[in-house]
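To the team - S-adenosyl-L-homocysteine complex, inputs and output below.
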Amino acid sequence: MQLFDFNFNKGSVWLVGAGPGDPGLLTILAYKSIKKADIIFYDALLNEEILSLAKPKTELIYVGKRGNKKSINQLEINKLLVNEAKKNKRVLRLKGGDPFIFGRGGEEALTLKLNNIPYKIVPGTTAGIAGLAYAGIPATHREFNTSITFISAYGAGGEKPDTIDWSSFSKTSQLIVIYMGLERINWVCSELIKRGRDKNENIAIISNATKQNQKTLISTLVNCSKDFDKGIIDSPALLVIGKNVLLSPILDWYVEDKKNINFLKKNYEQHNFI
Ligand code: SAH
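Output:
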């Protein structure tokens, strides 16, 4: 039975989401395309373990931003995708999460379309969904919300976006998930409080979601920057605001799981009993 169409042709580009970290969250299409690609362009958010799935001969090209080093810009990436496809390679553009959620996938797809390069989009699980699940936060919970709002705290040029209508989000958004918000946590929380959100409302900061070093910090809008300054949390991280956050301490299975795994490993080393 043909369950899905796998046809990664030479001279085409696949824009593939790899999910937020845990390699187990790769889709079958993502997994198979990594194994088949001739060249992979990947960025900073990608869990590099995933690249070990590629064939030994596959070219692995890093096109992300790291530290203060001069990084390759989006137009250059677009050009590289086109040029490598024209060399008749199977080109894989591999991204963290989903390519069309704050991932510039649309810009790359437009360039490919304009240059008549065949392409395919393979969605991945976005951090704003998988990260919440791994922190024990149901993205919808019937008693709490019938909607979710995704916000990016960065505009196209790196600025604080002036298109965010904090006032209406404060009033109407039941669950707010903010991407790229960690460095702007003061701004986010003060805007929400200023526009009427309860200062004692819960906020979760989930860092390195779905990875071995995942951490969740639960705080309140008024206290979160102070709590964040304690240095427990680092990038990448999501900010999650809404009643659903209350469920995290109860449902946080992943941390428990890791504790159990560590317990088992420790005992295995000491007593060799499993
Ligand atoms: N396309 C990606 C998002 C890219 S924007 C997706 O769909 O998930 C980059 C932002 O995504 C980061 O600043 C952070 O807010 C969030 N993010 C990505 N991976 C993450 C992870 N493993 N843990 C927490 N946040 C993550």
